[in-house]
């Protein structure tokens, strides 16, 4: 009976912006296979990562919880992952053969998190490269399956051979080895091998988890060639953004802010787009093989990214900030066999989030959703003839602890209010008419009622938080931010 359930394929990429889909109107990026998933499926145009960095975003995917529920409200490595209900665990209990290929970013690194098997490549993580501060069992030489495989092909190879830091968002160069050895190709090669060795008597849940387009920006030369001469649009610069760079921060290869030399930024952006097209083509490769195995029409597919990449927007880079380039992500559901009655080609405007992945995929498979889950199934927004009246959240609260840049934000996809908890700075964006967040309208006279409304929403959201950001009447500036809440350290 379990074999009658659909296979479930979750495809995630790391650090892909919401707008880098040609079907969403990007003037340069080519994503033909993702376009096809959106054209014949449902695209969620207002998808966000509530805590936009790798660890908390993946905690939301694994648990279906909000950031207050899973407890990771910033980026902090080496905090054990112990959750009662996880996405792969629920599938395994329901009779699925479960497999992850690629990035997990959990702790300990080889924690199965409910999967039957994990073929791991987390990319370069600083905490497991430091030989002087970690147990041998957590060192990258021990835990990373891609690196072990790569060294069998190229003796002595390492993740640092290109000289690019894993956070070098404004520096790029082409991949130096044959394309088939690139980590993007490896994820698909290993995923195809799973199709060969899976239990044919069970449906499968496969999480195909790419490390790119997260830096290092190292696309194969053929993909970089596609964009090097393209007319790449300049990043948007808001009236609130930095106007000069006295510390020359933009010259650092790992700059998180600053004015980067134009030629360097153009090449980095070209490489970022090239990595996305490379992933797109490899997804197409996997879809071909899935069809050859006769499983395509029996598979429900969800594609998304864990967070975005600012890539120079407002002279900012990487993630963790509340702006659209950082927090907003692509999100597509496709059902080739038409099992779910989705309205194909629909573009959904309601706000969805990482916590919605677990209940969506369990719903698609007819597997009960645990009571611990805070998210909801996005399928109710996509069903033919039903989505318009589906009850849904009216706003999303997002945040990220990050020193002086620690922030909280609330949005309904049309407006966004931002509060920086350490400085008290506020921002307000009318996303409907200003989608690139070019104007901070927080002082505009005709916006004061809306600013007060959203401030009151955030005050209520934070009232019970242990940091003391709110007393229920006002926001309190300067409370010490936490990356991890106390209830998951117990």
TrEMBL record:
This is Arylsulfatase. It comes from Paenibacillus albilobatus. Pfam families: Sulfatase. Residues 6-367 form the Sulfatase N-terminal domain. Belongs to the sulfatase family. SUPFAM superfamilies: Alkaline phosphatase-like. GO terms for molecular function: metal ion binding; sulfuric ester hydrolase activity. GO terms for cellular component: cytoplasm. Keywords: Hydrolase, Metal-binding.
């Amino acid at each position: 009976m379990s074999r009658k359930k659909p296979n479930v394929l979750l495809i995630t990429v790391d650090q892909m912006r919401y707008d880098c889909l040609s079907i969403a109107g990007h003037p340069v990026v080519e994503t033909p296979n993702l376009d096809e998933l959106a054209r014949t499926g449902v695209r969620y145009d207002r998808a966000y990562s509530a805590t936009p960095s790798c660890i908390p975003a993946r905690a939301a995917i694994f648990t279906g919880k909000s950031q207050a529920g899973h407890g990771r409200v910033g980026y902090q490595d080496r905090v054990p992952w112990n959750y009662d209900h996880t996405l792969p665990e629920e599938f395994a209990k329901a009779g699925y053969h479960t497999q992850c290929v690629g990035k997990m970013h959990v702790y300990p690194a080889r924690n199965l998190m409910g999967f039957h098997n994990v073929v791991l490549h987390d990319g370069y993580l600083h905490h497991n490269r430091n030989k002087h501060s970690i147990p041998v069992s957590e060192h990258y030489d021990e835990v990373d399956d891609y690196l072990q495989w790569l060294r069998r092909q190229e003796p002595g190879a390492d993740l640092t051979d290109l000289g690019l830091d894993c956070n070098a968002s404004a520096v790029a160069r082409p991949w130096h080895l044959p394309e088939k050895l690139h980590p993007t190709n490896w994820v698909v090669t290993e995923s195809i091998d799973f199709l060969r060795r899976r239990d044919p008597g069970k449906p499968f849940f496969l999480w195909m988890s790419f490390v790119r387009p997260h830096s290092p920006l190292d696309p194969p030369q053929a993909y970089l060639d596609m964009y090097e001469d393209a007319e790449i649009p300049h990043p948007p610069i808001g009236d609130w953004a930095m106007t000069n760079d006295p510390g020359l921060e933009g010259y650092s290869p790992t700059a998180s802010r600053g004015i980067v030399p134009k030629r360097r930024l153009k090449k980095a952006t070209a490489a970022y787009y090239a990595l996305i097209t490379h992933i797109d083509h490899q997804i197409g490769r996997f879809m071909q093989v899935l069809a050859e195995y006769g499983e395509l029409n029996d598979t429900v597919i969800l594609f998304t990214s864990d967070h975005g990449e600012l890539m120079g927007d407002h002279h900012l880079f990487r993630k963790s900030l509340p702006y659209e380039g950082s927090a907003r992500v692509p999100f597509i559901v496709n059902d080739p066999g038409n099992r779910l009655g989705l309205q194909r080609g629909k573009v959904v405007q309601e706000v969805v989030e990482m916590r919605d992945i677990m209940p969506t995929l369990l719903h698609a498979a007819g597997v009960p959703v645990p009571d611990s889950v805070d998210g909801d199934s996005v399928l109710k927004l996509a069903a033919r003839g039903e989505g318009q009246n589906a009850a849904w959240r009216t706003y999303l609260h997002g945040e990220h602890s990050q020193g002086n840049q620690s922030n909280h934000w609330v949005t309904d996809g049309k407006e966004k209010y931002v509060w920086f908890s350490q400085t008290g700075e506020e921002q307000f964006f009318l996303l409907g008419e200003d989608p690139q967040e070019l104007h901070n309208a927080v002082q505009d006279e005709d916006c004061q009622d809306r600013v007060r409304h959203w401030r009151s929403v955030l005050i209520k959201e934070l009232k019970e938080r242990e940091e003391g950001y709110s007393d229920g009447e006002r926001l309190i500036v300067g409370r010490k931010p936490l990356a991890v809440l106390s209830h998951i350290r117990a």
